[in-house]
Amino acid sequence: MVKSFLFKSFLLIFSHQILLFELEPYENTYTENLGTGKVVEKLEEISDGIWKISSKAKHPLFAMNQESFFKIDNKKVILISGFRNLDILGGLRKDYQAYKIYSIDNKKMMDYSYGKKKGSSEIPFNVFDNLTLQIQIKLNIPNEEKFKINYIDKGSVKEKIFSRETKNILFKSIEREIFEITELRKDKRYFKFWVQKNLNQKTIKVFQGGRGFNIEWLLN
Question: Cα–chain-centroid distance for residue 177?
Fold first, then answer.
């Protein structure tokens, strides 16, 4: 159960708004606080108006490769397709899923696969996966102290609730103003991350934990 939460929490991590934020290509590297894990996240514009965000992770417990394709319309992320391949403990357990989103008859539809399961379903118009969720928050940090996100996982759409708080913190011996984004949960697990409050809007630190584990991911 601890491992399951670690992997799911990890997926939500790396990227975020402020006033005049605009998308620009980047490549960010994050290192786990004990030095045993690494994540490389990359954002690139692959054609006019179409973006790809990818994330590759290596850790003693797992390896993961994921990509999402999307476009932006009036500061809103429009998810097009994506996949996530997660191998746990050297492949003893696999979590593979993929999805493609399209509109038909004024409805938003999703074709999906998760393991051996495949299907199609109608979904809300504003939906995100773990990577595009980050981009949407970067484009438009909510004014509310609490906000909801429709999140795609394993062929279904789930509602996640987050809180937003502005803080002044010390990071790598430098004082910084940040947004602290925290997932609100009913159990004892936790997940939160710091987004630097400036035009770059980088996620600089991520916290996740629960029974028996406590991990911090830091921007290099």
Answer: 21
Bridge partners (DSSP) listed for residue 82: 68, 99
- pTM here is 0.84
Residue 21: its pLDDT value, please?
Answer: 65
C-alpha dist (Å) from residue 92 to 9, 61, 104, 129, 152: 20, 11, 39, 25, 24
Confidence grade of residue 204 (pLDDT, cut at 50, 70, 90):
very high
pLDDT given at position 16: 39
- How many domains does one find in the chain? 1
Summarised one tens digit per residue, pLDDT across range 134-167 is 888 878 877 788 999 999 988 899 999 999 999 9
Do the beta carbons of residue 62 and residue 7 sit within 8 Å?
yes
If you ran DSSP here, which 8-state letter would residue 155 be given? Answer: T
The SS3 call for residue 149 is strand
Residue 68: enclosing H or E segment and its boundaries?
strand 62-73
State the residue range of the domain holding 82: 2-219
Q: Residue 190 gets which letter from DSSP? A: E
Residue 7 contacts residue 88 (beta carbons within 8 Å): yes
Average pLDDT over residues 110-131: 93
The token pair that represents 1 in the structure block: 């159960």
Q: Which residues pair with 191 in a beta bridge?
A: 208
